[in-house]
Amino acid sequence: MIAADGLRLTVFQSSALEDIAEIYLKELHLICHSPESKIATTLLVLPVGLEDFEVYLDFVDNANDHLEDQGLAGTIQLASFHPQYHFDGELEGANSHFTNRSPYPMIHFLRQEMMTRLLADFPNPEEIPQRNVETLEAINAGELQQRLDNL
After folding, report:
1. DSSP type of residue 43
2. pLDDT reading at 48 higher than 70
3. Is the per-residue pLDDT at 86 higher than 90?
4. Residue 96 near residue 90 (C-beta atoms within 8 A)
5. Fewer Cβ in 10 A, N or C end of the chain?
6. Which of 125, 89, 75, 83 is nearest to 104 (CA)?
7. How far apart are the C-alpha atoms of 73 and 1, rounded to whole Å?
8. Looking at the predicted structure, is the pLDDT value of residue 21 above 60?
9. 148: closest CA among 86, 103, 88?
10. DSSP bridge partners of 26
11. Pairing mode, strands 2-4 and 106-111
């Protein structure tokens, strides 16, 4: 675990889904019970266990269901990243997939209140996803993959 300036980074090496679920619950508990000044956001990096994209998506769906069940929807938001990330309905080779690709499967725990506060001063925050896609579309897909592979 690494923590700096409110960012908590946890790399978890177990491939057992039960262990991954346990570390997810631990990280969720920590961010929910720590002040923003101590843990503003958390990245949970999962190099093993969720390599299969469909298994990963199922895990993230269950994690989001858990947030809902615990009354944390609207308090904590999960952003998901995976080496094989593919947006449903997008062409297989679309560069837009790279907005959510990462070297390893990751779950980013975000404080919804903090994001709302930060985005309030950001011009046209609803345009951020499209600007990200446009930036990536200007780069060759092979180069994007090479950059990801080199991380």
Report:
1. E
2. yes
3. yes
4. yes
5. C
6. 83
7. 25
8. yes
9. 103
10. none
11. unpaired
DSSP 58-113: HHHHHHHHHHHHTT-TTTEEEEEE-TT---TTS-TT-GGGGGG--SS-EEEEEEHH
Q: Quick one: pLDDT band at residue 80, thresholds 50, 70, 90? A: very high
pTM: 0.88
Residue 4, pLDDT score: 62
CA 20 to chain centre: 15
Short-list 33, 18, 51, CA closest to 109: 33
> Given pLDDT bands bounded at 50, 70 and 90, which one contains residue 133?
confident
Give the SS3 label for residue 28: helix
Per the CB < 8 A criterion, the answer to whether 117 and 146 are in contact is no
Best CA proximity match to 133, nearest among 69, 77, 87, 66: 87
| Whole-number CA gyration radius for the chain | 16
User: What CA–CA distance (Å, rounded) separates 109 from 128?
Assistant: 19
Inter-residue contact 75 to 111 (CB < 8 Å) = yes
